Please model this.
Amino acid sequence: MPENSFENVELQNLTDIICLSHLRWDFVYQRPQHLLSRFAKHARVFFFEEPIFTDEPTRLDINRREDSLYVVVPHIAHADRENRNVTEIQRELLAEMIETQKLDDYVLWFYTPMALDFAADFAPQATVFDCMDELSAFKFAPPELIENERRLMEKADVVFTGGQSLFEAKRDRHNNIHAFPSSIDVAHFNQARTVTEEPADQKSIAHPRFGFCGVIDERMDIEMLGKMAEMRPEWQFIMIGPIVKIAEEDLPKSANIHYLGGKDYKELPDYIAGWDVAIMPFAINESTKFISPTKTPEYLAAGKPVVSTAIRDVVRPYGDLNLVHIASTAEEFIAACEQALQSDSPERLEKVDEYLAKNSWDKTFTAMARQIVQVVNERNARASVS
Model:
């Protein structure tokens, strides 16, 4: 199916969506934004974030963005937080939104199992769990998360996973579970192949450049990054993205490591265009065991050679197809980067483009929409019989 072509999808029963997320819409543009912005072209989508605690009265802010996408932010007064149950307040605010927005029929879409604490008693047409990560393995994960996920698996009508390895780990826990690994907006990242004007904060950095864009958190092997910078002082390592759950003083500091901060999704092709090699120096630990990095196909679509540590969903399929160089130590990573510097060729790009042509966020949206519509249709059919 070509990009932006949904005529073969039966969307007449795709109702409004309430998405309960641990991520903020304006944090980093990733899987939830790619998918829900597409759903918002066909139905209203209410992206319900975690609360902000404030000195002002408790309220619910609902702000319309693109198409029919609404970002919903609960603001809970410190006084209410101290004197009342926050879970109950969130339940009341969600119920208020459902009533005021006239959400008679809706799908309840979970990104965080913790939202089940305040959303378990609602009656959606369908319950979706998009399990994009193994959240229980992340730093500072609440201890109740594992039990909440078990409950959510029981409640969900359909479960999606953010990668193949995560699907394999959870496929025995639900009878309607589907793997939807990280996808790609090819046209957006293809722009990097023709960029001629560099961003000002990257322009003066020398070559060769080895770049990363994404959240810089406990999944990053900062020790290996520091060691590589020390081993190759003439190489420049460009790190783009917010720093989360890592103290800045713990990050490796070197004249050839450049932390440029977070960038808008629209700007990423401009930055990637100026790199010689795109890198993914992820740590190999519990928090990365099931990740399926969106940046893998993004880097490839941008036309860059890619070097990654041995993340399972990168090795399969990208490493196995020789689309990405795989390394396990700082020494191996350096060697792989040296090889990547010499590996650029029209043949490599042809192979990359042939593979990426099979994958897109539009196709992922289409397949997910079909699964949800099927659940809703089956529920309506049962209701009509009874």
Observations:
- The chain has two domains: 16-183+360-385, 186-356.
- Residues 361-385 form the longest helix (25 residues).
- Confidence is low (pLDDT under 50) at residues 1-9.
- The longest strand covers residues 69-77.
